[in-house]
Design goal:
It is built from five helices and three strands. It is mainly α and about 200 residues long. It is found in: Membrane.
């Protein structure tokens, strides 16, 4: 049985000090985290696209891509999410053997707000790169490169796991996701009704 917990926290993450006087004036306060947030995932895509050009050894390419994907998953889940947008998620097993998914976000009124530039880097990198892996899945199927299918599926799964986790952190629990979907659907129905009743 799985349960979900959603928590707001204003505790410092990764040793950050809550004193705003220590914050740098630059828009990107965590350049290393921002760099490595994109580095591993872009490198995995680049190696996948270029490995057959530079190397005919499938095993070497496969292992390199899997290592890059694993490093990316760990970095995004454990470092860049905390530092760049103040979000974190994880799974823990209690003493009864039950899984608990925990989704946390830094409180919006925290003394240590997130940078808008870092947030853009985080969300663009998080969402755009998995789209490439979706394309790669279809391209391997349609081009009959079945040996690459396991690699691209692994890329898709690892990157979409982080997307799911961080979207859940951002919007709250599952009920909030349902409410967002209902509200969006309601607004669309209202707009359509208004358009039909008001005429062209």
């Amino acid at each position: 049985m799985r349960t979900q917990d959603y928590q707001d926290t204003d505790a410092p993450l990764f040793g950050e000090d809550d004193d705003t006087s220590t914050l740098r004036k630059s828009k990107i306060r965590h350049p290393l985290a921002s760099f490595f947030h994109l580095f591993f995932r872009v490198c995995a895509i680049a190696v996948y696209l270029l490995c057959e050009i530079f190397s005919s050894r499938f095993i070497v390419c496969m292992v390199t891509i899997i290592l890059l994907l694993s490093c990316d998953f760990w970095t995004v889940k454990n470092v860049s999410g905390r530092l760049l947008v103040g979000l974190r998620w994880w799974n823990q097993v209690d003493k009864d053997g039950k899984n608990h998914w925990v989704f946390e976000s830094r409180k919006t009124d925290s003394l240590n707000p997130t940078s808008s530039a870092e947030a853009r880097i985080f969300w663009l990198g998080l969402i755009v790169c998995p789209i490439f892996w979706i394309i790669f899945v279809f391209s391997t199927i349609f081009s009959f490169k079945i040996k690459w299918l396991a690699v691209v599926i692994m890329g898709l799964v690892l990157q979409w796991a982080n997307v799911y986790g961080y979207v859940r952190c951002k919007v709250g629990g599952q009920s909030n996701l349902r409410n967002m979907a209902k509200n969006y659907l309601g607004v669309q129905i209202l707009k359509e009704t208004m358009r039909k009743t008001m005429g062209p």
